[in-house]
Amino acid sequence: MAIIVNLDVMLARRKMSLTELSNTVGITMANLSILKVGKAKAIRFSTLELICDTLDCQPGDILEFKP
Length: 67
Fold this sequence. Notes:
Blueprint: E1 2-5, H1 7-13, H2 18-25, H3 29-36, H4 45-55, H5 59-62, E2 63-66
Antiparallel strand pairs: 1-2
């Protein structure tokens, strides 16, 4: 079982860089990079909400479950 993080896909669709997302959301580049590569152990709902609001997407657009 694995949770796949498609943050890079959503960034590409929105033509936004990780730096732009970091500045807009107020999350450090390091933390976003950890999330992007799938190394994060957890994510706060408030953080996920900010990312989804900024990228105009749903949590399911970013997170995917692969059994």
